[in-house]
């Protein structure tokens, strides 16, 4: 079942996010099961919304790629993460082939 993942990471800056992004390279080597990734940064920190095939796919990415990259960059804190089943999905800009 598809899941939505909502992450809030207090104190993480855009520069730190970009460092992790470069190290983990999820855009160049997409994670299995990842469907959508949106990141925003404000004065409180990092906010991420993802769409995944399953919670297990997300957890595998976190354990094998994301957190090792976070440690490499030196971010000392942990995010707050909520995972919920997707009830409905509408993407008006996406037109399937």
Helix content: 25-40%
The largest sheet, given as strand count, sense and whether it forms a barrel, is: 4 strands, antiparallel
Shape summary? globular
Mean pLDDT: 95
Question: How large is the count of helical segments?
Answer: 2
Task: State the domain count.
Answer: 1
Your description of this structure?
By secondary structure, the chain is an alpha+beta fold. It has one domain: Alpha-Beta Plaits. 31% of the residues lie in helices and 32% in strands. The chain has helices spanning 14-24, 55-73; strands spanning 3-10, 34-42, 45-52, 80-85. A four-stranded antiparallel sheet has the order 2-3-1-4. Helix 1 (14-24) packs across helix 2 (55-73). The chain is globular, with a radius of gyration of 14 Å. The two termini are 23 Å apart. The relative contact order is 0.30.
SSE layout and pairing:
Layout: E1 3-10, H1 14-24, E2 34-42, E3 45-52, H2 55-73, E4 80-85
Antiparallel strand pairs: 1-3, 1-4, 2-3
Please tag this protein with its features.
97 residues; alpha+beta; 4-stranded antiparallel beta sheet; 31% helix
